Amino acid sequence: MDTDRVAGIALGLVTILATFLLPFGSFMLPSGQTGETTLFNMVVQFVQNIANGVQQPMSLIIYEIIILVSFIILIAAGALGLYPLRSGVISILGVILLTTVTVFNPVLGFNMPSYGAGYFTVWGASVAAIVIGKFRPSARRKVAAVVSQPPAEEVVETSSPPLDLFKPLSGEEETRTIQEESSSASESTAGTPPLPVSLNIIEEEITRVRAFLVVLEDEKKDNIISGGAYDRLTARLRRILDELEAERKIMLEKLSEKGSPHQG
């Protein structure tokens, strides 16, 4: 499971525990008095009031219903911790609803209640869930973009990288490769030993290996790949890169000797 979802579940549990265990502040209670209590205890008093058929003014009933809805929203947000962004947004909506009804109290009018630890804990967990849900998936999207699109020249660090690094060769490139191989074959009939592969193929392989190293580096920065896997894969890719560089050097020397005038 992704670390962002694990963190989202933890923040969802914090939201639920805060509504049940931590004091939310000093609010108007069904009895008409104010007292510091948890949001859960307030809702229990509201439900008991309704169950016992206690006569209440309409303004107080509206107040109780809004706080009950806010409580339900916070519990639902905590249960959605597997999806941090959704959980955080829903939780903030619940807190905003609670804040609005307590500041603009239908019974007392405009007032500034004294909020408690539970209130601020839910606010903090909501904001943290939104941050995690908003920015952590961007790491996976970044890696997907690197794999599906050619990296910039300065990242690949090659003098002339292909524009379509991770796409198949175009028809023109395939034709050019076939022509080079055909030319190599014709030269072999004239007595010159053929080269195993054309130079542009080796150049393409070198460029691709360098691009894969860039992808691994980004995955390490975003904590998507473990350190052990990164070290092993990087070492293997660098060995392949060294072999290809050596092969390219040998091929360039052969081509240079082939192009120089014969002595004697």
What does this protein look like?
With 264 residues, the chain is mainly alpha-helical. It has 10 helices and 5 strands. The chain has helices at 3-21, 39-51, 58-79, 84-103, 117-135, 137-148, 153-156, 171-189, 199-221, 227-259, and strands at residues 23-28, 34-38, 104-105, 109-110, 114-115. Helix 2 crosses helix 3 (58-79) and helix 4 (84-103) packs antiparallel against helix 5 (117-135). The longest helix has 33 residues, at 227-259. Residues 143-147, 150-162 and 188-195 have low confidence and may be disordered.
Strands, helices and their partners?
Layout: H1 3-21, E1 23-28, E2 34-38, H2 39-51, H3 58-79, H4 84-103, E3 104-105, E4 109-110, E5 114-115, H5 117-135, H6 137-148, H7 153-156, H8 171-189, H9 199-221, H10 227-259
Antiparallel strand pairs: 1-2, 1-5, 3-4
Helix pairs in contact: 1-3, 1-4, 1-5, 2-3, 3-4, 4-5, 6-9, 9-10
User: What average pLDDT do the residues reach?
Assistant: 75
E-strand count: 5
Point out poorly predicted stretches.
Answer: 143-147, 150-162, 188-195
Note the run of SSEs as H and E. HEEHHHEEEHHHHHH
Strand order of the largest sheet: 2-1-5
Tally the structural domains: 2
Note the gap between the termini.
71 Å
Radius of gyration: 34 Å
Number of helices: 10
Keywords:
264 residues; mainly alpha; 2 domains; 3-stranded antiparallel beta sheet; two-stranded antiparallel ribbon; 10 helices; 5 strands; 6% strand
Provide a brief overview of the structure.
With 264 residues, this protein is mainly α. The chain has helices at 3-21, 39-51, 58-79, 84-103, 117-135, 137-148, 153-156, 171-189, 199-221, 227-259; strands at 23-28, 34-38, 104-105, 109-110, 114-115.
